[in-house]
TrEMBL record:
This is Flagellar protein FliT. GO terms for biological process: bacterial-type flagellum organization. Gene3D superfamilies: Flagellar protein flit. Keywords: Bacterial flagellum biogenesis, Chaperone, Cytoplasm. It comes from the Bacteria. It comes from Thioflavicoccus mobilis 8321. It is found in: Cytoplasm, Cytosol. Pfam families: FliT.
Length: 112
């Protein structure tokens, strides 16, 4: 006799919550709210760890696969945004250093 697998009805909702979190994470990054994005990433990481503590069942494979694909696309876009923000922040630091050096040079020149 074949045993039926126990279906956990909370798993699809849990997975949907992870995907909603992923969308909110990308939206926060796109709006420049990096503090919120970091918070959402920590939450998502914990949710993903919890979800995959139990391997997806065969009947879950299709929707889990689609969700993973969505997460990968979203994370690729998130990575692009992070790289762009990193470059912008680096340019800002360089600009501030140049301004500080110019200010010091001006102060030195006017003090003489």
């Amino acid at each position: 006799m074949r045993r039926l697998a126990v279906v956990d009805p909370s798993r699809p909702r849990e997975w949907d919550d992870i995907l909603e979190n992923t969308r909110a994470l990308l939206a926060a990054a796109m709006s420049g709210d990096w503090g919120r994005a970091m918070q959402l990433e920590r939450e998502r990481h914990a949710r993903i760890d919890h979800f995959f503590a139990t391997a997806p069942a065969l009947h879950e494979a299709a929707w889990v696969r689609r969700g993973i694909e969505e997460i990968l696309v979203s994370d690729a876009r998130l990575s692009e945004l992070c790289q762009r923000e990193k470059a912008r922040a680096g340019a800002e630091v360089i600009d501030l250093r140049h301004k500080a050096a110019a200010s010091r040079a001006y102060a030195k020149a006017t003090a003489a």
